[in-house]
Amino acid sequence: MSGVRLVVAAAILDGTGRVLAAQRAAPPELAGQWEFPGGKVEDGESEQAALVRECREELGIVVRPGQLIAAVPIPGGRLLRLWTARICSGVPTVSEHLELRWVAAAELRALPWLAPDRPLLTLLEPSLTGRSAGGAAGDVPGRQS
């Protein structure tokens, strides 16, 4: 994938049909919009390792990556890849975002999502409603203590 920078995002599922959404704090032109947490894959890092690292840095949690949901091109010659994930330890805490919110499938479209994340919503819905074949929704723990 020469020239294309990978960005990973986590659709963190809670096992009750909800996904964790994060409200951007910066930059100003994106503040207030919602996204799936994640970030850039560093050189020599696997996508799954990047997902674990980004969730630890942004949310203070340890996640286990699940299945790849989709990949969409984003500005700047980057490719955004959305993975399901489950929380292994910790409780998501706000550090880099304005707010974190658990969102059910029926509520997804009520939030103002970042443009690159919008096409992912339809692809994620089966994982939230249990309609996906082999989806990870059923084995994701609810609350962690």
**What's the pLDDT, averaged over the residues?**
87
Order of helices and strands: EEEEHEEEH
Distance N to C terminus:
40 Å
In the sheet with the most strands, the strands line up as 4-1-6-5
Radius of gyration: 14 Å
Percent in helix: 10-25%
Largest sheet: 4 strands, mixed
Identify low-pLDDT runs. Answer: 132-145
Individual helix count: 2
Fraction of residues in β-strands: 35-45%
- Structural class comes to alpha+beta
Total count of strands: 7
Morphology call: globular
How would you sum up this structure, described in words?
With 145 residues, this protein is an alpha+beta fold. Helix content is 17%, strand content 37%. It contains two helices and seven strands; from the N terminus they run ββββαβββα. The protein has helices spanning 47-59, 118-129, and strands at 5-12, 18-24, 34-35, 38-40, 62-74, 78-89, 97-104. The strands form two sheets. The chain has a four-stranded mixed sheet with strand order 4-1-6-5, sandwiched between helices. It has a three-stranded antiparallel sheet with strand order 3-2-7, with no helix packed on it. The chain is globular. The termini are far apart. Mean pLDDT is 87; it is low at 132-145.
Notable traits:
17% helix; 7 strands; 145 residues; globular; four-stranded mixed sheet; three-stranded antiparallel sheet; disordered C terminus; alpha+beta
